[in-house]
Design brief:
There is one protein chain. The chain has 533 residues and is mainly beta. It folds into three domains: 187 residues, no CATH class; 99 residues, no CATH class; 190 residues, no CATH class. It has nine helices and 32 strands. It has a seven-stranded antiparallel sheet, with no helix packed on it. A six-stranded antiparallel sheet has the order 3-4-6-12-8-9, with no helix packed on it.
Amino acid sequence: MGESMKEKILNLKENKKAIILLILILFMVCIGISYAYWFLTHIQSGSNQVVTDCFDIEFVEETDAITLSKAYPMTDQEGSSLTPYTFKISNKCAAYVSYQINLEILNTTTLDSQYVKGMLDTNAKVLTENEVVKTTLENATTSYKLATEYLDKNEERTHTFRLWIDESVGMDDPVSNKTFEGKITITASYITDMPTDYDLCVEKYGEDSINCNIIAQLDDTGKCPEVNEDGTVKVSGAESTSGYLCSAPDDYGTSYYYRGTVENNWVKFANAYWRILRINGDDSIRMIYAGDASVIDALPNKEEVLKNGYDDSTTKYTQIGTSPFNSSYDDNAYVGYMYGTPNSGTYKETHTNVNNSTVKEVVDEWYESHIKDTEYENYISDTLFCNDRSFDYNNTGTGAGKSYTNYRWHSNHDYVYLTCEQQNDRFTVEDEKLGNGDLTYPIGLVTSDEIYLAGGYTSYINKNYYLYNGNYYWTLSPDSFFTNAFVKYMGFDGIVYSSANVTNSRGVRPVINLKPNSLNTGDGTASNPYRIE
């Protein structure tokens, strides 16, 4: 993979100009007389801007404080829902920057760090599990590295930080009447070259990471569709001859998607086979259902079924069953994975996420019976699913009631994108900052964009890419309302841009996201799929 990130930085040691931004955040936790309660306050410092002949890095505190009143030991799910301290770092000069975010524990602290959990962005850890690094403050006893990040020229990035008492704290733990004080410190350095995404992955997860091994497969021969400046991807045809990995922006960052005749994206998880669609921009692993492992493993022609990647002549192995998308069709509301009030006069009333679609109930029921309350649930990520109900460029309808309306993919465009325009359409469970928080479980369906990027194309029959299975199955992508509500689905011949009345019965292939770096064994082939062991 060439020179490692560590080697690059060491080679630049002589030229490095380091700046340290200190006294950015002050935390103090007081455990009072009532054992189960604690209080956290924030004292804000003065100016937080440093300018050098090479940098102009600005630290902007976007919220006044983290304030927790009557808090108590809590789960990670509860902690991740707390209001975060949000800050933005801007690199305003034409040079690359590496910066490290640390939490330094002050010598006035009497509460053991093992009882405190911090969450920078989406990474929650007990503080003692973070890497211990050299302190930069005279009155600090310990410094924990929270993250190392990089800024491109003239780039900015926003971070969030949450702090809470870990749920492991019990009534016998020595935390009452204790204080916790710490400061976030940031050290920044100039570097001549930005690290590759593979370098960044290895720095975060290690060289043995399957996430990183997948990213290392990124095609550099020019086969991948062109990514436009606005983040859209220009796709000019189907892919039926080669299998490779490409990249495109999504709502979290850079996504790495499989395209074409891929044979090394198999996963075995929760007693089922799956195909990896892509590594999302938050490093989670998005994958689509490909069959019940207990059924397929018992087949005398198991290898043939897995090798072909589609069902045999008698059994539909690669879906959990069939279902209508919705039980009614005569309103714009029914293009939604969830929907509002039919016969409403406004778009908002029509598309508010109140009612479950029929297909969502089927998918949720599968989750309840196969993943909920099992060990597998610990590996599931709350990464968004896009039910894009934005309008097509040629639309004249209102999207309400029985108004004739063209949704985004009604026209057959030659460009696709993995971002989701409207927050109301970004389906999540807990995340209400980027997503809508309306899902019951973190499970959904594939989008037409994802099938298109995987190798499908308008009107081109393609039975030779990894998402083809010889069956019709639903996507999450609305098409239009014209007397009937229509949603996109995969055709039996591999064509993606067909659309069907939502009351028609089509196959259901659930999609889930695994937490980053969850997979730790296997090589992704059908005979040795990626697994969690």
